[in-house]
Amino acid sequence: MQLILIFCLFAAAASYSLPFTSELDEHWGHFKNVYSKSYTSTEETRRRLVWEERVTSIVHHNLRADAGLHSFRRGLNKYSDLTHAEYMDTLNGFKARNHFLERNGTTWFPLSNVDIPEQVDWRHDGLVTPVKDQQSCGSCWAFSTTGSLEGQHKKKTGTLVSLSEQNLIDCNTDNNGCHGGVMDAAFEFIKSENGIDTEESYPYEEAGPVRGVDPPPPEMKGPETGRGQCKGPLSIAIDAHHESFHDYKVGVYDEPECGNGISDLTHAVLVVGYGTEEGKDYWLVKNSWGESFGVNGYIKMSRNKNNQCGIATMASYPLV
């Protein structure tokens, strides 16, 4: 009887020692159910602690947003149980390399006698495929590459075709698959191969690179790729290493700590338009972290604000 009593006391003490906030138990359960999360007991303890810390940070930010101190709000998404280091290792994958920064560039000339619209959304023109999810793979460079090529291919042919990121991850040896890359190297690869496979013929599996395996026959051929100026989605790289970006939910993202140099760029995304919201200019950006990120997979990033987050530092697109 004494042993049973001692065991019960020990169990009770252990339960009180768990470093969880009990008020969040229900919300943790919802998070796991909504995003189909499954952990071992040890892993769940670690993930719960990471998640709770993120919840606290989000609540503090949103209270400040309610007071008018921020122009955007943060929120949970399917990756909210990842540490900052894991975000950087698995969801950021832009790796700038100098020998690709100076190739195929064109000189920008200021526009004259051109009526520039106040707002653009290339989704309305059918130039943008649905939001994709790179999952636990630093392949954002591949998604940015296919995104701009999909738009230009649609402009030329009238048909929007989802293109294969896995083709690039597996076969583009100038980039490093899930360990990062740069869009210009991918454009050069597509040019050298006279095309790229479709998503349907070569679906995304996130693993890579796979050597010694021939890809399926390509179903879409013909893009000539280079860089220049265009009307359509643009491949860009940004500084996305801040927690505020990872948790962005709605509003115009404004992060004064963002860098805009080449060395600051960590993540590749796709600009699909621009506009103004409540007096704040923004770029409309398609991410590749699934639809739980931001507004159904999109983020509005500050525009006309000293190239915040380096959004204009490395913009490019393919000539088709």
What fraction, in percent, of the residue positions are helical? 25-40%
Q: What profile does the largest beta sheet have? A: 7 strands, mixed
Total of DSSP H or I helical runs spanning 4+ residues: 9
CA radius of gyration: 22 Å
- Strand composition percent: 5-15%
Number of beta-strand segments: 9
Termini separation comes to 81 Å
By secondary-structure content and strand pairing, the structural class works out as alpha+beta
- Name the overall outline: globular
Low-confidence stretches: 1-17, 208-229
Q: What order do the helices and strands follow?
A: HHHEHHEHHHEEEHEEEE
pLDDT averaged residue by residue: 86
Give a structural overview.
The chain has helices at residues 2-17, 25-34, 41-66, 84-90, 98-101, 140-157, 165-171, 183-192, 243-246; strands at 72-74, 120-121, 195-196, 220-221, 234-238, 248-253, 267-277, 280-286, 298-302. The protein is α+β, with helices and mostly antiparallel strands and 320 residues long. The strands form two sheets. Strands 1, 2, 5, 6, 7, 8 and 9 form a seven-stranded mixed β-sheet that branches. α6 crosses α7 (165-171) and α6 crosses α8 (183-192). The chain is globular, with a radius of gyration of 22 Å.
Q: What's this, in brief?
A:
The chain is an alpha+beta fold and 320 residues long. It is built from nine helices and nine strands.
Keywords:
320 residues; alpha+beta; seven-stranded mixed β-sheet; two-stranded antiparallel ribbon; 9 strands
